[in-house]
Fold this sequence. Notes:
- This protein is mainly beta.
- Helices cover 6% and strands 55% of the residues.
- The chain contains two helices and 16 strands.
- The protein has a twelve-stranded antiparallel beta sheet.
- The N and C termini lie far apart (50 Å).
Amino acid sequence: MMKFNAIIIVLVIVLVIAxxxxxxxxxxxxxxxxxxxxxxxSERYFPDAIGLQWTYSGSVAKQIQRVSSDDYTNTAxxxxxxxxxxxxxxxxxxxNQSNQGQAESYFSRDSKGISYLGGRPTTDFETQLVPFMAxxxxxxxxxxxxxxxxxxxxxxxxxxxxxxxxxxxxRSEVTAVGLETVSTPAGxxxxxxxxxxxxxxxxxxxxxxxxxxxVGKTAHWYAKDIGLVKQIEKLDFSEEIEGSPLxxxxxxxxxxxxxxxxxxxxxxx
Length: 269
């Protein structure tokens, strides 16, 4: 049996590839997204001007023998710019990312789309995944994009207790499902883009070569000129992970959006 508490830290970082990056995924598909339609001014759904600030109310529901929930608040700020992996990047800082504490994520953006360059804190596992294109421009409604597909990765943990770190593979894809209206404490947002997708990490135990899946499914809604207004992330764990719940569902909804009066332009504008 594997330890749950250690593995969840790694997975939170992996699923950041679903928070600011992922612009990704969900566990419910939407009807009416069968036809692919290019979205004009796709970049306006992902503002990155320095000083922008979003505050979200969140909850983490854990299903074990009963359903328990932890409520929290998370504030996200476009903190500034830096160079990451040799390219200009925007720094997104969060006060309590997925109820796991402070974190930074780094993104680059150009005419081809948005790339994820990593985060802090990070892991050896994540550094093997980045950089990658999170969302290509223009966004095409109804189209599925492959974000990550890598094999023979070194995992961060020795989950089976044999003194060796495990091997892993990872695959992540995202679909721009369609446009929806979303109601939040910060207001009602029309024509938000809903992204849905799945990230699967297969861990191969060094002790007996058994493969253990961990599946993350997320839904994100982005409003034009505002950014992320709602997200839902669902993790399903294998029974092999000792002490793990059957799954966790993390939800965040926008409660406040602050746009400074004297606003610097995004570094890619």
